[in-house]
Amino acid sequence: MESKSNRLPMGQSRRFILSDETQFAIKEAYKAARTNLVFSLAENDKKTVVITSCSPSEGKSTNCLNMAITMAETGSNVLLIDSDMRKPVQHLLLRLDNKIGLSSVLGGIVRDVSKVIDRNVRSHLDVLTSGPIPPNPAELISGSRMTQLLDLVGEHYDYIFLDTPPINVVTDAVLLNNRTAGIIFVVKEGFTRHEEIRESLRKIRMTNGRVLGFIKTNCSAKPLKSGYKYKYKYKYNSYGDYR
Ligand SMILES: Nc1ncnc2c1ncn2[C@@H]1O[C@H](COP(=O)(O)OP(=O)(O)O)[C@@H](O)[C@H]1O
Ligand SMILES: [Mg+2]
Predict the structure, then answer these.
(1) What is the pTM of this model?
(2) CA separation, residue 148 to residues 46, 73, 151, 169, 179 (Å)
(3) What is the pLDDT of residues 85-121, one digit of tens each?
(4) Which domains does the chain have, with CATH numbers?
(5) Does the beta carbon of 12 lie inside 6 Å of ligand 1?
(6) Ligand 1 centroid from CA 177, angstroms
(7) In a mutational test of the pocket of ligand 1, which residue from 10, 55, 62 has the highest number of ligand atoms less than 8 Å from its CB?
(8) CA of 55, nearest ligand number
(9) Is the CA virtual torsion 32, 151, 136, 172 positive or negative?
């Protein structure tokens, strides 16, 4: 077990987290993604969503946080769980203490999850950090304590967003399939390869998972006729687009 300081890993930045300074077009893109997500979950009792992607550094954690922030802005009560117990960053992005967290609850070190949750990180947004890095993350994610935890927090929150490790590297994200409504899949323009996406989707299908939608990130600047430019575009597509 190890605990971490609030120093970000090399190259990781807080500047992509939604704030008052974020460009209008980016905020609007997240709101569009939120609307699509709300509709795709309308028929679902579970409002627990996994954010994942094929590989490391494709924007899972940033988009998980931004989707949680955007959802909380509607007044819905939102919980973000950093379920990436291998390379957790949410506590670093949000400058939170991580001496105890998800791994402490799943490992049986902390019994009362409510004592571990950081309240009102933003208005209506609570966060459960990863906790110290455990030796057996997949085992913990697939164990009965995780089911109990999701059942319990599911009673208190309108939406729960789970940050996870990359699907083509470890199985953690798909291990959550039967306890969650589905997956938001992040693809990074100019980086994520089509074969990798196909491989990830195959894994999700094989484990009876459901892709709720895609977020395309790191999109190139597109000058519009009006001369107005925006740097990042977030796209939220239906599953069919990438089959
Ligand atoms: N919209 C974006 N455009 C450019 N870089 C980004 C964007 N969102 C995140 N990043 C950067 O990409 C890197 C990986 O982001 P992160 O969200 O941690 O990905 P993952 O969780 O998939 O590893 C970080 O350095 C982050 O600062
Ligand atoms: Mg991450």
Answers:
(1) 0.91
(2) 14, 27, 5, 26, 10
(3) 999 999 999 999 999 999 999 999 999 999 999 999 9
(4) 24-219+226-242 (3.40.50.300)
(5) yes
(6) 24
(7) 62
(8) 1
(9) negative
